[in-house]
Write a structure and sequence with these properties.
- The protein has 167 residues and is mainly alpha-helical.
- 81% of the residues lie in helices and 0% in strands.
- It contains 7 helices and no strands.
- α1 runs antiparallel to α6, α2 (27-40) runs parallel beside α6 (121-159) and α5 (101-116) packs antiparallel against α6 (121-159).
- The longest helix has 39 residues, at 121-159.
- It starts with a helix and ends with a helix.
């Protein structure tokens, strides 16, 4: 049973890495669920304070994920229309079968959102760039936290491998 829990936890860790770039899946929170499932394995002793601290970090990153792109858009002169366009562009970029759609989508979405708001093209381009920078910053932070959680997962499994893999 412990091997099955560890495999499921590993899948959640991988989903957490993927979720760092996909807005549908909260990366660090998904990775944390992997750590929680690992905690449920009887052969893996894990401190509850470790789980609480990693949960707090994951929630903090999840909240920042909604704030950082908005800050990027606002800082470069964007409006609410640009932020809405960023979100719509991200979804379209995920669905559209174009290379780098997840990167191009938010940029084009913010640009079109600002143009829809009757902003001149120069200001709209600036806001789109801010949205793009905000998205990249947010994705980078989520990815780093997911990689750290994966490293913790691998370290915990490695340290307890004698107890886990006894046949």
């Amino acid at each position: 049973m412990d091997i099955i829990l560890i495999i499921i936890a590993a899948l959640f860790m991988i989903l957490g890495l993927i979720g760092s770039f996909l807005p549908v899946l909260p990366g660090p929170l998904t990775s944390w669920v992997g750590l929680l499932i690992l905690h449920l394995a009887n052969t893996v002793p894990m401190d509850k304070s470790f789980l609480i601290i990693t949960l707090i970090v994951a929630i903090l990153i999840w909240v920042l994920d909604y704030i950082i792109p908005a800050i990027g858009t606002k800082r470069f002169g964007g409006t609410r229309y640009g932020m809405i366009g960023t979100s719509i562009g991200l979804v379209v970029g995920l669905i559209a079968p174009i290379p780098f759609g997840v990167i191009i989508g938010p940029f084009i979405g913010a640009f079109l959102g600002e143009l829809f708001n009757k902003t001149d093209s120069k200001t709209a381009m600036k806001a789109a760039f801010g949205s793009f920078i905000g998205f990249l910053t947010s994705a980078f932070i989520k990815f780093i936290v997911a990689v750290i959680y994966l490293g913790l997962f691998i370290g915990i499994v490695w340290d307890n491998s004698n107890a886990i893999f006894t046949f």
